[in-house]
Amino acid sequence: MSSRFADSAIASSRERPVSGVPESSEPDALSPSAATRALHGVTRFLDRARHRRISLRTRILLSFALGGFALSGFLAATTYSFTKSRLVRQRDQSALSDAYKNASIVASELRSNPTDLTALLSRLQTLGVDRPVLYYRGNWSAGRADFGPNALPETLRERINADGVAARMVTRVRDEPVIAVGIPLDKVDASYFEFSSLSELQATLSSVGRALVGAGVITTSLGLLLGALAARRAVRPLADAAQAAQSIAGGRLDTRLDSGGDPDLEGLATSFNNMAAALQQRVERDARFASDVSHELRSPLMTLAASVEVLQARREDMPERAQTALDLLVGDVLRFQGLVEDLLEISRFDAGAIHLNLDELLVSEFVRQAVSVSSVRDATVLVSERGEQMLIRGDRRRLARVIANLIDNARLHGSGDIAVYVNEAEEPEPISNVWIAVEDNGTGVPEEERSLVFERFARGGAAGRRATSEGAGLGLALVAEHVRLHGGKVWVEDRRDGEPGARFVIELPAEELSA
Amino acid sequence: MGTRILTVEDDERIRAAVKLALEDEGWLVDEAADGESAIDIFHQHPSDVVLIDIMLPGIDGFELCRTLRRTSDVPIVMVTARADTHDVVAGLEAGADDYLTKPFAPKELSARIRALLRRVRPVSPAHARLLFGDLEIVPDEGKVNLGGHEVHLTKTEFRLLCELAQNPGRVFSREELLDKVWGYDYFGDGRLVDVHVRRLRTKVESDPANPRHVVTVRGLGYRLQS
Predict the structure, then answer these.
(1) Residue A306: which of B17, B189, B190 has the nearest Cβ?
(2) Residue B104 and residue A302: Cβ atoms within 8 Å?
(3) Which 8-state DSSP code applies to residue A18?
(4) Best of B84, B218, B220 to mutate (most A CBs within 10 Å, chain A)
């Protein structure tokens, strides 16, 4: 009988899976199939992400987070179902063995005292069985009214009373999960039933579930954190490369990328560095060419300049036509000389061979001096009150050149009526820049050509016209380079007073003298 | 006898043109195509100013400069290809008094030469001797003694020292010294002053690394103290 009992118990447990025990819904979502679905979802998401150009960083971050989520979900689900089946089986077996023990007591009691059911039930109660149900000779009697025969599932009753097979089922009575065990007692024409509570088991399981959900949340968060770190690490070489490229674009041609010994990055670093080296070589070759050409031009220029001077000293002895020719020659030798000097200077910029000789300069004083040695010595210099008290750090010779070039430019494009302004920059306090502006009364520079005029040998439109008469076409380009090297800016705009004419402004970092 | 100028330059055409331009100033011009012949010519007819191109065949301009300096305090002008390379400083360290960058206008060259030929202004008739601790300056005789021993200065070094001695203790800015000693306008090269001060210190300071007489005033310039 015991073997029959055991078999049927297993059979019944198969028929009615133990998961019939009610439980909270979260752990259910974490079952293995849910994890698989989640994984599919992740893959689909990552696929979509690739197409939708979600940033690499976000993708890595999400992969880690979702990976952590899926993995912890899978582990939680496995752990939960394993724990649950183990606990349920334990509970099941103890319920069965208790019921079996109690049933044999009931059987022997009934044999010795077949009529006194009340005594029997109270005896059982003293043994700790508080919810027994007895079916004896066609009548039901129960230890507790609320756990009577009606609480027993119909199928269980039939199975015991009609089929005479021991079985047990999980059910709910008054919202309490219970396991109901039934054992036929054929020899005394009775069936013994017993309820035992599963609420403790359920409490254990739901606390395990909660712990697993908590662990899952923590794991997913760790995944997120790890993902963020990994994303940062993974993206860093790209950021480095971008920075290096930017630095090269900014003129630091000797910038190279360090792979840091990472074989995965070696390829990128090597090809990047090869590109940079090729670029550097090319730029340097071009710069050297310009520099070499200008160097070669110096010697003949020296001879020309010296000879022209000798001729000039005898200008009065010459016939008029020769004088005119000499004047042309002198003018162009000077222009040629200026051009070669500018070319040399600009090729030095290109070669990165310029070293500023920085001094602290009182702007107002400096500008007055620079104007006094320029081609328009009597240009008006107007300094604002605060402009008088501003200091810059600059290369005296080069900045004087900047001002001289701007004045030359203004002289060539107006009637020579030039005004130079020194003001604090129009910016929110504290003022950290000074403006030096040169205004002429020429035709001005049209909007669309304002950036072009600072290009070398700028051609076309006003820029071209500006380059014709005397301007080498390098003067303003040199201004731009010098100012940039001083950490400043240069631009051209309309005159402030509404009169026709151009206003060239250079902005330089400055500090105010505290009064 | 007129002022004699020796120009050392390997480019024959430049040499000829510069000679013509300098002769227009009323100076007597000797020419040399390389360092060796320059030394020979200099020994035959001592010049008042020597003009040396750095790029010379054979011994270069720096070497020629040092060789001449060993026996003479003649003012030397170096001609360099670039103003912002170390050539300038190296040339000044070798003993040059001034420099010019090619291509220069001959007018600029004559202005530089005239500045170098200018005589030292007498400090003040009342001060025949100036004493700064162990340093003694005798402007009229062009002599400087350190600890009782005569030290030999070039003309430019001497002029620089006298300029500082005009007003002991006062700070002279580089621009001021450039104007007074070299005759430059506002935008001269401060390195001229710095290198000459350094050279001057090796002669008038017992410890040139920690100068006691020719003192640097950071950000302002130099001053002389006893």
Answers:
(1) B17
(2) yes
(3) G
(4) B84
Q: Is the pLDDT of residue A255 over 70?
A: yes
CA separation for the pair B128, B144 (Å, rounded): 12
Could B20 and A307 be called an inter-chain contact, meaning their C-beta atoms sit closer than 8 Å? yes
- What does A166-218 look like in DSSP terms, one character per residue? -EEEEEEETTEEEEEEEEEEGGGTEEEEEEEE-HHHHHHHHHHHHHHHHHHHH
Q: In terms of DSSP bridges, do strands A176-185 and B149-151 run parallel, antiparallel, or are they unpaired?
A: unpaired
- For residue A310, give the nearest of B11, B24, B186 by CB distance: B24
Provide the token pair at B106. Answer: 């001959």
CB-CB neighbors (< 8 A) of A295 in chain B = 81
At which residue do the structure tokens 């010379």 appear?
Answer: B56
Dihedral sign (CA A478, A479, A482, A488):
negative
Q: pLDDT by residue (tens digit) across B88-104?
A: 888 888 999 999 888 88
Inter-chain CB proximity A354 and B187 less than 8 Å: no
Q: What are the E-state strand segments in B37-171?
A: 49-53, 76-80, 98-101, 130-132, 135-138, 143-146, 149-151
A105 three-state secondary structure: helix
* Cβ–Cβ contact B82 with A under 8 A: yes
Q: How confident is the model at residue A360 (pLDDT cuts 50, 70, 90)?
A: confident
Cβ–Cβ under 8 Å, residues A294 and A286: no
Chain A residue with minimum CA distance to B104 = A302
- Whether A28 shows a pLDDT value over 50: the answer reads no
CA distance A406 to A401: 9
- For B145-177, the pLDDT digits (tens) are 888 888 888 888 988 998 888 888 888 988 888
ipTM: 0.78
- Other C-beta atoms closer than 10 Å to the C-beta of A194 total 28
Please tell me if residue B55 touches chain A, with a CB cutoff of 8 Å. no
Pairing of strands A433-439, A502-512: antiparallel
pTM: 0.58
CB A488 within 8 A of CB A472: no
Q: Can you read off the two tokens belonging to residue A487?
A: 């950490």
Percent of chain A residues past pLDDT 70, beyond the cut:
87
Which phi and psi angles does B145 have, rounded to 5°? -120, 140
Q: Please, which residues have CB within 8 angstroms of residue A347's CB and are 6 or more apart in sequence?
A: A287, A288, A290, A291, A294
Strand segments (E) across A30-130: none
Nearest neighbour of A303 by CB, restricted to B14, B82, B107: B14
Closest-CA residue of B relative to A303 is: B14
Closest Cβ opposite residue B24 in set A313, A337, A353 = A313
Cβ of A27: how many Cβ atoms within 10 Å? 22
Which chain B positions have a beta carbon within 8 Å of A302's beta carbon?
11, 14, 17-18, 102-104
Backbone φ, ψ for residue B179 (5° rounding): -65, -45
Angstroms from A250 CA to nearest CA on chain B: 23
Q: Which of A300, A353, A357 lies at the smallest CB-CB distance from B190?
A: A357
Of B14, B106, B186, the CB nearest to A369: B186
Whether A17 has a pLDDT exceeding 80, the answer reads no
Indicate the pairing of strand B76-80 with strand B49-53. Answer: parallel
d(CA A438, CA A502): 8
- Residues A307, B17: C-beta atoms closer than 8 Å: yes
Instruction: Among A302, A315, A342, A485, pick the best mutation site for testing chain B contact (most B Cβ within 10 A).
Output: A302
- Give A239-264 as a 3 state SS string: HHHHHHHHHHHCCCCCCCCCCCCCHH
Q: Is the pLDDT of residue B36 over 70?
A: yes
Please list every residue in chain B whose beta carbon sits closer than 8 Å to the beta carbon of residue A299.
11, 13-14, 102-103
